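Protocol step 4 of 6: structure prediction from sequence.
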Amino acid sequence: MKYAPADARTHLDATMRWLCVAQDATADGGVSRMYHLKSGWGASYPETTGYIIPTFLDYARLSGDESYRQRALRMADWEIDIQMPGGAVQGGTIADPASPAIFNTGQVLFGWARAFRETGYERYRKALTSAADYLCRVQDADGAWRRELSQFVSAPADTFAYNIRTAWAVLLAAGATGRADYRDAASRKLAFTVGLAQPNGWIAKNCLNDTERPLLHTIAYSLQGILECAAILGDTRARDIVATACGHLAVIFYKNGGLAGRYDDRWNPAVRWRCLTGEAQLAIVLWRLADLTGDAQWSEMARALNDQLRNTQQLRGPAETAGGVKGSYPVSGDYGQYQYLNWAAKFFADSLMCEMRIGGAGASG
């Protein structure tokens, strides 16, 4: 079902209201993993709550609404309360038995680094330092992370190329603390990930559960991680890999009128359903490419992706769904089936704020 789209600010406001409802659906300060159309709200999800923190702080600044800042800091404090001994963050939701997870730790590191930058509070510096120390300690010499990966992902341990996004978080920790060893660790991971790239921009070993046909979600995770690490480290070769991959996706997008939820290593669509999370993430990558290169082709595609996402978002109705973003389109698709995902909403909000800042949409669309 398609809905009548509105301007960027209207959809942004609705998305942020839904994320507030998702936070309030739990009693601990974290954000509910999802709203399931059949079973209702899930437990708080440490991984995604961590990277939702910067989104709330960005929106607080944009809107002037201090309550979003307070909500973000409540999330950051909750993450401290549940941080594991040794600095790691657990995999799964808070309802699952705690086990350390590299990717999840990196995603919460985004939140602590931003909270520390915003407030200067020592508790956030201690949490981010403990997490970054842990990530450096379990990293292999070649830059890869192969130990203490998530038990909730079924793919083999050497298929986690999307952990380059964790390296980006470690670089932010380096910026917050001045620690050269953090920067070195992230640089090694970038070099390792660049080594997985094929001439067509495809990043091998990059999936959650299908080694041959990864999700657009994890593809975009990798592209964003590479691009942001490249921007900080001044690595133009890495940035070019992202542009090459996005070029192939642009051909598909304009030829087919949209994107699929999974692709193979020749950029052939592998499923009929859409991964809305991945589309929002890719739009962010495209906005950043436009910002970094000045090339309008990237912002044009990003805006078109945002437009397609707006067409799937219901602005009115029950609080459990109004402003939320489905995992798949249609909602019966295999990714986040019958669910509105908190990270899908987070990435769509980020992309809409990029549209307003980089694309010239302005405060009202």
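Step 5 (inspection) to follow. The chain has one domain: 8-357.
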